[in-house]
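Entry 14. Ran structure prediction on the chain below.
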Amino acid sequence: QVQLVESGGGLVQAGGSLRLSCAASGSIFSFSGMGWYRHTPGKQRDVVAYWTSANTHYADSVKGRFTISKDNDKIAVHLQMNNLKPEDTGVYYCNLDRAATPAGFILSSWGQGTQVTVSV
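Output, structure tokens:
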């Protein structure tokens, strides 16, 4: 019952910036966190940035360049990407996690992805 829609991807030259947005809709009773994952051809989908009420996590490759933020009045997150590098190219997916049981089992919802291409 959760839908995630990403936007903001595009083509940018190295050193440029993009801002990705993810809006969640549906019946969301509660959630534990939201994040951004990236998939590139021939590589595994890996976390880029992850937000919780307690802290944020960033992949080493984007630390100091990317910032994840959450809207205060809605279930939505953004990823501000500065000083982009060709290695940042990939499909970025928004993720929302929910705790399914008190034991801690996590259910993950995913958006359709948005393409980010960084050219030299």
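The chain has a mean pLDDT of 95. Will compare against last week's run tomorrow.
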